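# step 3/5: fold
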Amino acid sequence: MSSDIRNFFKAAAPKKKREREEEGDDPKPKPKPKPNPSSPVKTTTTTTTTTRTPTPPVSPPSKKKKPLGIDIGASSPSCPPPPPRAAAAAAAASPKKKKKASATPKPPTPKELRQKALKSLKKAIDALPLLDESKAEESGFSLREKTADLNPYNQQGGAEVEPRNRATKGKPPRGEADMFHGLGFVITGALDSLHRNECEDLIKRHGGRVTASVSGKTDFLIVGLDSGSSKVKAAREKKETCRIINEDGLFALIASKEKKSSQDGTTGALPKQQEAEEASGSKPAPMAVDLSPEAGLLWVTKHKPKHLGEVVGNQSQRGLMQSWLRNFKDIHVLKKDVVVRGDPRHVKKQEELREKKAVLVSGPPGLGKTTCAALLAKAQGYFPIIEVNASDTRGKSDGDAKKGLNGKTSNQIRELISNSALPSAAAGSSSKESRGPIVIMDECDGMSGSDRGGIGEVVDCIKNTKIPIICICNDKYLPKMKPLRNVCVELDFRKPDKRMIARRMQQVCEKEGLQAAPVALETLAERSNGDLRILLGYLQQWKLTRDTLTYDDVRGSSIDKDSDISPFKVCDVLLGFEGKNYSISDQLNMVFQDMDLIPLLVQENYVNHRPQVAGNDKQRMKILAKAADGMSYGDWASQVVRGQGEWGIMPYQGVMGAVYPATYVRGQREVMNLYPNEPNMTRFSAWLGKNSSQSKVQRELREVGLPSDYLPLVQRRLSQPLLDKGKEGIDEVVDFMKTYGLVKEDKDA
């Protein structure tokens, strides 16, 4: 038994000590243990040498190789050996190594990306020639003539001219995909062979960013014939950071990083995966199946924000809601005089937050309103979070107290906000740390006919509540939302900037192993109308077959979201230069956004646009007459549709009432100088205001007893003498009123 114990501790001894024992250097050598008779017969021979040989790294003992030829498990089955100290130390040190190896490098800043791109293009930039606008034929660069700006019908600055060498010049080169990553470009004038949208696609294909005006972040101004003087002047003021180049200069920059395809020797920097697919002539094979627990989840659920740092945009609105949740109990329950501090720009909103017990969060779908509300409530210590959405019955609560918490959802909420004992009981064991429950009413504007009295019930609950209530909707301007807006603090969530969305999507793509170009993600963010859920679904669908995402991949994709465009925006598009880029079908779809209001806005504003096809005032009057004829046909079609129910001719009404006149008068908008400081903006339809007072005017005319045809003459006979003669014309006006039996009230009418 003593030999077994000795063998056990010898096996568990440190590595160096065992080596000394094996080599005979131990100051106290121990006798060689005898083999256990109960174990199988094993003959082992050990030799002692004076020379030291390097020993291999310590590895966990296995069944094949036992220390000193003794089977510890057989001799002492009830006493398993502890791990060696060296192995324990290695096991303790291994997590630190893994943690250090798994640390991801910090992504480069936009300034670093810009400097890196400029450094790689330095030789090509230094080789570019200086442009001389006096030699327009050679350089393809000229400034817009000052006399052209004086001619009101010369609109070459707003309309694009056909490139002069489009048919003779070759295709643009193809360079590295991210060679312009971090650089900003501005385009002005008519280029040599490319349209403006084609030049934008060429820049974005190589990772660049295109803006409308020159700023401190602009690196290149691409000029052409009739370039804008203001943009060229701004670029020359920033000559140390902004370079003025033409189309040939852009091609030279791309050609400096040009690659040749392996197929036919033509230039082009195609992705490696795309080159392999084209060479083999086969479609991309599906990716390997991921068997992890999160593999089957949608990316919308998998990458849902877990904390406030992952929420995109609306920082100021989140800060106001956080301040309201933090001080709710002190202000509305304990009645303390709390000084709410915040941004001085939101002083009025802060005062409103002190007075009201609920907030109304509104904004387009897909912005994360519900997720943000839940995360803010969790961060401020509210538990449980009671969420009620459109799938629940949210009608008026029953007056029967017997139903109570066993009744429908509105009864439960009513009991929760009115009973002072329930909030602390709902928090459970964590009531010491929890601030109490919170109610999130989602999709308030979606209350259907089954939710009878739902809005009124919510308003009544808000007035008597002792817990915070967050209401969420998409459109707060619906008539049924008016009672709710009166008792809530309105917080408007807006669409985040496309760059902010692209940064968040870049993080998701890195986690999922999808190599996506930043310009491609910005384009997707713009085309998805800021809806992050649609964007995540598209990226997940793309990852099923590809590992890379470029700008060319998303340029022709069908991710466009059917969004509600403002009627004023539609009117600006139809009457402006942008409208020519849309087909008649697309323009008609925009008109159908608001079939009643958009034709009226076109009718109100079409005279404020200088037609691009008009060369003088006479031609302009003819074009306005053509547009007025089209609107007359549109009014006739509107009467037939609404009077006789002929809904099949609504497309004809939309085309003749809005698309047809807008096509004629499309051009620059100008003011009519009707009054000082007249704003150059789309005016609201005056017909609606006049039509709303029509019934009142007709009633007053019936009381006067005069036909409506007499009204202009009567008005002139009552006012003209006073304007011409002053006080001496009073007698003439009084005599006229006596003749027709009119009194002062009739004069006002």
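# step 4/5: annotate
The two ends are 123 Å apart (CA to CA).
# step 5/5: archive (pending)
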